[in-house]
Fold:
Amino acid sequence: MLTAVLALSLLAPAAAAVASPHDDAVTALRGGASAEARRRAVQELAESGVMADAPDLVRALRDTDTVVRALAENALWRVWSRSGDPDVDRLFALGVEQMSQRQMDAAVETFTRIIERRPDFAEGWNKRATVYFMRGDLDLSLVDCDEVLKRNPYHFGVLSGYGMIYLQRDEPTRALSYFERALAVNPNLKSVEETVEALRRLLLQQRKNTI
Structure:
């Protein structure tokens, strides 16, 4: 009997040490895993990742494998869109649907309810900022963009959003700075990269015209 108890006590720590698929994924991204293993790791984090995994996924945006980079971008959006509260997640899905149906006032109301319930949920602020932008309420959109960055400094989407707002305001220099910041986080944003090059040419020409 004593032998059996001792055997169980020795096995218990070993069982507790078994890593979860999530932990295995993080290890694969941080270590020298193969490209295929890194792809699986990023896909796992898309399903089970939390905000604390964002730094690893952001690093994966610079992976040598193009598939890993694309999967990492998708995984970040999925992680950011999970609040950790099933009721809030259902509201979030409703708000996104309202946006797609161009029901802007209803979407603002839905995302406001989310913000009131979970002010720490950055993506609630981001989606409301997006709706405000779509409605042309640029000042309100900027306020919400600020709230996003307070909670999620890696949010390349909101950094691009700032750039779009300042383009609308005909402030190309400020727009360029935010687009460059978005690329500094995620260098795979091709449309942003093209916009940056166009703005640099525009500003260079403007400087030449003033000489």
